[in-house]
């Protein structure tokens, strides 16, 4: 399965949903931009956007919640180790209170992976960060030799179509 994302104003992104009613878009509001996200097997409908292969997934992305996207640039040599580490611990957060969805997204172009998690609230995410489970899941994730650049995080609140 693939995942596709693009940025724009909510009004612009909403027009995509009108143009492609068969696609289940998820809209997110960030501090500096809004995002449209969807998953599928066909080519992206976005003129400019990012495409990913979904390597690991659990849970269903819901229309409400809080999304954290860890953007991690990975060197070519580091790809096998990075992907293997996530596959080994893919269910580390599934039972965490407030957890909704997880995706490990491999870019089709470039080297920046996205670790996508969705929570029912920002508080649930913060509780996960303070948990023993988080500490265990991140014991071997210090800035590594396989990071091509500094990782960075984007956070979003889901936008329900009827609410703006």
UniProtKB/TrEMBL annotation:
Tell me its EC number(s), please.
1.14.-.-
Superkingdom, natural source: Bacteria
Q: Name one Pfam family in it.
A: ABM
Q: Where is the ABM domain?
A: 66-158
Gene Ontology MF: a single term: monooxygenase activity
Question: Which keywords does UniProt give here?
Answer: Monooxygenase, Oxidoreductase
Question: Would I find Oxidoreductase among this entry's keywords?
Answer: yes
What is the protein named?
Answer: Antibiotic biosynthesis monooxygenase
Which organism is this protein's natural source?
A: Ornithinibacillus xuwenensis
């Amino acid at each position: 399965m693939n995942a596709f994302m693009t940025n724009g104003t909510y009004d612009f992104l909403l027009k995509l949903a009108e143009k492609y009613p068969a696609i289940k878009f998820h809209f997110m509001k960030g501090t500096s931009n809004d995002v449209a996200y969807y998953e599928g097997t066909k080519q992206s409908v976005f003129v400019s956007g990012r495409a990913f292969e979904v390597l690991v997934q659990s849970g269903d992305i819901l229309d409400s919640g809080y999304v954290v996207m860890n953007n991690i640039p990975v060197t070519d040599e580091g790809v096998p180790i990075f992907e293997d580490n996530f596959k080994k611990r893919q269910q580390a957060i599934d039972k965490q209170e407030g957890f909704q969805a997880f995706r490990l997204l491999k870019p089709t172009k470039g080297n920046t992976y996205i670790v996508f998690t969705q929570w029912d609230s920002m508080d649930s995410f913060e509780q996960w960060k303070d948990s023993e489970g988080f500490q265990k899941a991140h014991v071997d994730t210090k800035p590594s030799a396989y990071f091509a650049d500094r990782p960075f995080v984007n956070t979003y609140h889901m936008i329900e179509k009827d609410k703006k």
